[in-house]
Amino acid sequence: MPRLTSPELVKAVVHMRKKTNYGKERLHDELKDRGLVIPVSTIGKILDREGLLVKQRTYKTQKKHTRTYNLLWPGQRIQMDIKYVPSEVSPLGRRYYQYTVTDECTRMRYLAWHDSIWTLKVVETLREAQTFFGFKIDCVQTDNGIEFTFDYTAHLTARHKEPKEHPLDQYCRKIKIRHKLIPPGEKELQGKVERSHRTDDEEFYRTIKGRLNLPELRDKGKRWMMFYNFKRRHSSIGKKTPADFKNDRLKLYPDRLAA
User: 10 Å Cβ neighbour count for 108?
Assistant: First the structure.
């Protein structure tokens, strides 16, 4: 078989896959940077042959929204969500949570890890994200969980009680940021932050060996966040890093820089 891929190239593909958990397109780019040009289809066949492909769960439900929203400037709208840290990473009997803030334009993300879901932690994370991003934020979009809104809680049906204002709404009103809630049951409107959570599972949590306490998880997580923003190239923004794409956009919209 004269066209059979050499063992050295197969070894390089397998090593890079186990190191990064990248898909075949991203592995092609990474290996090309190292002087190894292997067709994407060949990489896919090597991964399949070596048993390194992970089948994704498929859903038959029809999406309500199929339009892709590409925003123009940094901070035009950010998506915020909370992800359960996989149980394989957490100590037995403990549950950790990843707070995620994603800018829809640049794909930059700020991540924080806590051992509870608490409204004040949401506000704290948003405040830290503003500092980390370095640009103004016009709108924050969330789902309708109680950590983000009180609009769907039972106390609103009790007429003898005054509706309480959520701490996130208080903070957004104070700093003049719009808080937008997606319609119930339409999680696809949070597609960018949800897709980034899948990347967390594939390229971060699966690479962790053993269980971590909260300080260890935060230490590894912060390094992953910096890699994601400053080193990892994203196909959705022209194979640039979020930091590079942010700098390009801020040249077009310099008034978006935070004071």
Answer: 26
